Fold:
Amino acid sequence: MPTQYEQARANVTTPQMRRVAERENLPAEKVRQEVAAGRLVIPANRLHLAGNDQTGVKLDPIGIGRALTTKINANIGASPVISCEDLELTKLRWALKYGADTVMDLSTGSRLDEIRARLLAHAPAPLGTVPIYSMIAEKPVEQLTCADMLEVIARQAAQGVDFFTIHAGVLREHLPLLSGRKMGIVSRGGGLLAKWMLYHERQNPLYEMFDEISAICREYDVTYSLGDGLRPGCLADASDAAQFSELASLGELVLRAREGGVQVMVEGPGHIPMDQIQMNMTRQRQLCHEAPFYVLGPVVTDAFPGYDHITSAIGAAMAALYGASFLCYVTPAEHLSLPSAEDVKAGCVAYKIAAHAADVARGLPGARDRDDRLAEARAELNWAKQFELAFDPETAKDIHRRDMPADQDYCAMCGRDWCAVRISRQVTAALKK
Structure:
């Protein structure tokens, strides 16, 4: 069966394209045209679309591209230190509750197929993975064969995974460019493949087997998320030769993926000073033929561990304004630990703010409607309406009622007599007389 990309190019509007158009309040033909141009992807594995017989959950398709609202991804996953299927299911639920459009299972350690299957069975949103993490769970990276790698990729596609991070753009000739870096390689997938290349004195096997991987992706309509294995891990390494050499390789792979009929997006940098963000977004769109750009942050300062959901959300808002379509959240646990459910919530909320702020600034039709309705409710001192319109009503309600036993037409900040909104209403009323 043809992929979404192939059907779009054949002038076929699929049910998934129609669903995306409905969610985005756009004409279905506009969505089809964007998919056909490669500027929009709909990560939707055929098996995930069919649904799970036991849970009754099936994928509700979403689109990722500049013609649409900015999407966010939440990373979850067990580790060799902490591995619990129930905890990952809780993280999945929290991520979806607090606005994640997609979820990535980055589990390492044991029982990875079981964890992934359980997440897919309960995920109405697209689920992504990084297949090399499962590969190294089965044997050391140096012992992996090309057949091993293809087998894991095929197995995950057959489970229903909707998009794969594949670090195929890290080439052997790029590795000497890392010599001047402070942080070297910070991508786990990039580091593992660099180790494999040096051990075997060969080119990146995922690059060499790219067409075979594309055939697997095409069979199930899995979307590529071409990983940035040489992304900068600190401000000092941003926008260097290693990063941009890999980006050029990713541009080549975008065209190869499309030739194979596979949808494709491209992953972007992790740590970038604010003054370099616009340039990075522009360069990616040029080199990668306007494939949707999926960025991790970027983090705009390295000095605030524990608060990187904030340092990165600043960069994410700028990235979305200047060209990114898809934001991978960062939680307060980034650089420190595996995120808890509370960390997942904090990361999702920070990134919903970033994505929404960028959509408002981009002038997307209807993007500011909720803001305007909430402003009107504030002007009317209508607390019930404000809570109804708030992204996180429970938190807003808890804070408002912290110092006041019941709803009043003022808050504890100024009190009744000093409330600026009350005074403004009095002034307005007097001017009307």
